[in-house]
């Protein structure tokens, strides 16, 4: 039975990843920052839940040590924030820094801490929830400085991981889930979490070493950096 490790699993796409992988018979290690805040997660059968605020970098190391004998076939770095005011003239430096801590630095720390767990598995995939908004090639509309910059930086991390972790047999990917109805995506989004995660699970099930260092959409499209 393969194992998936997911950050930010108490709502939105993380919860849907946990739900679908648990339903498919995977062993699910789900993390969220407040253990008390997701009845929906704790209601899922057989899911192992751990508390983790991804900006508590010491906490990432402690959890990695706690799980040291558990191979992780698929690590999903999903937890993310959008940032507050993003119009030119309105960007707040502290908010920008906080967004980078969650969306970029935490992903790097998770990759460093959990490399041995992923390397020891059969699946050996690290996948990072990015966004098409992080594509510099695709940016025709401008704005969204904080979110775009954070996901572009995450993409740079993923690309380097794909080179550096190749010798450990680890595939590193950036994923775009589409525009999805969650607290972050909002009600106007065209996709349900179920549709997005169905698509991403299909993409992930077809991943080989040839895909390492790629930026893939939920529908299989390769997105330019
Ligand atoms: N929805 C979309 O349309 C869309 C599009 C492109 C990319 N994405 C990406 O997909 C991922 C999931 O998005 P979503 O739509 O599910 O967002 P969401 O509904 O806002 O959920 C965000 C999740 O991240 C968690 N999180 C935030 N900061 C955290 C921290 N410091 N430590 C641990 N967990 C933290 C939240 O936990 P709390 O409940 O504790 O806050 C929550 O579980 C994000 O990386 C996002 O950028 C989403």
By DSSP, the count of extended strands is: 7
Give the strand content.
5-15%
Major sheet attributes: 7 strands, parallel
| CATH-assigned homologous superfamily | NAD(P)-binding Rossmann-like Domain
CA gyration radius, whole angstroms: 16 Å
As for the number of domains, it is 1
Given the C-alpha coordinates, what overall shape results? Answer: globular
Count of helical regions: 6
Looking at the overall shape, the CATH architecture is 3-Layer(aba) Sandwich
Average pLDDT figure = 97
CATH fold field value? Rossmann fold
Helical amount: 25-40%
Bound heterogens, unique: NADP nicotinamide-adenine-dinucleotide phosphate
CATH C-level label = Alpha Beta
Write the element-wise H/E pattern from the N-terminal end onward. EHEHEHEHEHEHE
Strand order of the largest sheet: 3-2-1-4-5-6-7
Give the end-to-end Cα distance, rounded to a whole number of Å.
34 Å
The SS-based structural class is alpha/beta
- Low-confidence runs: none
Describe this structure in a few short sentences.
By secondary structure, the chain is α/β, with parallel strands linked by helices.
Looking at this protein, list some descriptive labels.
binds NADP nicotinamide-adenine-dinucleotide phosphate, seven-stranded parallel sheet, 15% strand, 38% helix, 7 strands, alpha/beta, globular, Rossmann fold
How would you characterize this protein structure?
The protein has 225 residues and is of the alpha/beta class. It has a single domain (3-217), classed as 3-Layer(aba) Sandwich (Rossmann fold). The chain contains 6 helices and 7 strands; from the N terminus they run βαβαβαβαβαβαβ. It has helices at residues 12-23, 39-42, 57-66, 93-119, 145-164, 193-205, and strands spanning 3-6, 27-32, 48-51, 74-77, 125-129, 171-176, 214-217. It has a 7-stranded parallel sheet, sandwiched between helices. Helix 2 links the parallel strand 2 and strand 3. Helix 1 packs across helix 6 (193-205) and helix 4 packs parallel to helix 5. The longest helix has 27 residues, at 93-119. The radius of gyration is 16 Å and the shape is globular. 41% of the residues are buried.
């Amino acid at each position: 039975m393969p194992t998936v490790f997911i950050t930010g699993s108490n709502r939105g796409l993380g919860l849907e990843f946990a739900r679908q992988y648990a339903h498919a018979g995977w062993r699910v290690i789900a993390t969220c920052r407040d253990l008390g805040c997701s009845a929906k997660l704790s209601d899922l059968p057989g899911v192992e839940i751990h508390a983790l605020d991804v900006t508590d970098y010491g906490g990432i190391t402690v959890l990695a040590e706690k799980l040291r004998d558990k191979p992780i076939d698929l690590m999903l770095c999903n937890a993310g924030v959008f940032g507050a005011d993003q119009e030119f003239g309105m960007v707040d430096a502290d908010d920008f820094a906080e967004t980078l801590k969650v969306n970029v630095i935490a992903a790097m720390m998770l990759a460093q801490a959990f490399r041995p767990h992923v390397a020891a598995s059969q699946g050996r995939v690290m996948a990072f929830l990015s966004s098409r908004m992080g594509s510099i090639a695709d940016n025709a509309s401008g704005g969204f400085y904080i979110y775009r910059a954070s996901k572009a930086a995450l993409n740079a991390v993923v690309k380097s991981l794909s080179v550096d972790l190749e010798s450990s047999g680890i595939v590193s990917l950036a994923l775009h889930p589409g525009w999805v109805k969650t607290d972050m995506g909002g009600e106007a989004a065209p996709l349900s979490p179920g549709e997005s995660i169905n698509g991403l699970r299909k993409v992930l099930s077809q991943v080989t070493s040839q895909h390492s260092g790629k930026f893939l959409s939920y529908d299989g499209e390769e997105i330019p950096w």
